[in-house]
Amino acid sequence: MIINYIIISNISKEHCYRFLIADLLGKLICGVIYISFPTINVRPDITTCGIFMNMIELLYKIDAADNLLPSIHCLVSWYQYFSLAVIPNVYYKNFSKKIIKKFLEIKKLFL
Questions:
Q1: 35 CB contacts (<8 Å, ≥6 apart)?
Q2: Cis peptide leading into 38, omega within 30 of 0?
Q3: Cα–Cα dist 81/96, whole Å
Q4: In Å, what is the CA distance from 45 to each residue of 57, 61, 63, 106?
Q5: What is the pLDDT of residues 61-79, one digit of tens each?
Q6: d(Cα 54, Cα 25) in Å, to the nearest integer?
Q7: In the prediction, which pLDDT does 28 show?
Q8: Which residue ranges does UniProt annotate as crossing the membrane (predicted)?
Q9: Which residues is 66 bridged to in the sheet?
């Protein structure tokens, strides 16, 4: 999320530089791994028709089945999570805690 980069840049200069160096270095390492050890996903052929199969076909056309590991979006999510963890009241921390709490309450109903 772009908003996380903006929030992190306002914490402090040192924090921002450390985050950006880690972010760029992590993406560089991922790029080296992608070039050295390319990974692909063999997707099954779509043999049936229907709205959901059409949606899967569209997804197959949009998203390439390569460069699967390491996952850059997971890497960036972890970086952002740990960089924002130093801020006591990020606007969505309480929201996330409420969602997790509700999810656990619902899960208890089914167990």
A1: none
A2: no
A3: 12
A4: 9, 13, 15, 37
A5: 888 777 677 788 888 888 8
A6: 38
A7: 93
A8: 20-37, 68-92
A9: 40
